[in-house]
From TrEMBL:
Keyword annotations of the record: GTP-binding, Hydrolase, Nucleotide-binding
Family affiliation: Belongs to the TRAFAC class dynamin-like GTPase superfamily. IRG family.
Biased composition (Low complexity): 1-26
Gene3D superfamilies attached to this UniProt entry: P-loop containing nucleotide triphosphate hydrolases
Organism, as annotated: Paramuricea clavata (Red gorgonian)
Pfam families named in the record: IIGP (PF05049)
GO molecular function: GTP binding; hydrolase activity
PROSITE patterns for the chain: G_IRG
GO cellular component, one term: membrane
InterPro entries linked to this entry: G_IRG_dom (IPR030385), Immunity-related_GTPase-like (IPR007743), IRG (IPR051515), P-loop_NTPase (IPR027417)
Domain of life according to the entry: Eukaryota
Cited SUPFAM superfamilies: P-loop containing nucleoside triphosphate hydrolases
Full protein name: Interferon-inducible GTPase 5-like
Region of interest (Disordered), ranges: 1-31
Length: 229
């Protein structure tokens, strides 16, 4: 792809730290931090969990990735260097098993998680918005993660295609869809699960570290390559 990148967004410092302050208070109970990875079936949740843990999809211990719905119940994957941090691969919503939000919330046990990562490969859908609104009502934090951003260029055949303007438009569209639910576009990330060095993946890595309690954050800050294969 071209060399242009998304427009620069401020690093996830004060604003993201403020939105995740309650997470740090919650983790004081048992010291563990659980990131719930949520989204519709086929959104790329399992591939994201592999990418954030520095694994290829066929590595030992990797989450199973398939074109069909493969995650039927919440599956927890520990951080490769800190067992007190985990990413939970949730079943997809909007499926026969989880046709509506109340059913999904109950079946997936969403009250048990500290912070949510909402994965979407396309425009924010009604199911995504309903989930974000529900999370917001609980006082918990969430990040919006637009995956498969590397596919966009190949979908747009116009000669006038401008990568940077396209990313900007996507980011603005995401922000419009969650208006009033997040504090700033710093909580929106455009990524490819198969290129964790590009777009907003490094910034997302930093935001996740900033969401951690102090001692865990300090530990991982010394190992900034843990998720970047």
């Amino acid at each position: 792809m071209g060399q242009s990148q998304t427009k620069q967004v401020k690093q996830p410092t004060q604003e993201v730290k403020q939105t995740t302050q309650e997470v740090k208070q919650t983790t004081q109970k048992d010291g563990k931090l659980r990131f719930a990875v949520a989204g519709e079936s086929g959104a790329g949740k399992s591939a994201f969990i592999n990418a954030i843990r520095g694994l290829k999809d066929d590595d030992d211990g990797a989450a199973r990735v398939d074109v069909l719905e493969t995650t039927m119940e919440p599956t927890e994957y520990q951080h490769p260097e800190n067992p007190m941090i985990s990413f939970v691969d949730l079943p997809g919503y909007g499926t026969p098993n989880n046709p509506d939000l109340p059913t999904y919330w109950k079946n997936a046990g969403l009250d048990d998680y500290d912070i949510f990562l909402i994965i979407t490969p396309t425009r924010f859908r009604q199911n995504d918005f309903d989930l974000a609104k529900k999370i917001h009502s609980t006082g918990k934090s969430f990040f919006v993660i637009r995956t498969k951003i590397d596919f966009i260029k190949w979908e747009i055949r116009k000669r006038s295609f401008n990568e940077e303007k396209t990313w900007m438009k996507i980011r603005e569209d995401c922000m419009e869809n969650v208006k009033g639910l997040i504090s700033s576009e710093n909580e929106i990330f455009l990524i490819s699960n198969y290129d964790p060095h590009k777009w907003d993946f490094p910034r997302l890595h930093g935001a996740i570290i900033n969401a951690l309690p102090g001692h865990q954050r300090e530990c991982l800050s010394r190992r900034k390559t843990w998720s970047l294969r």
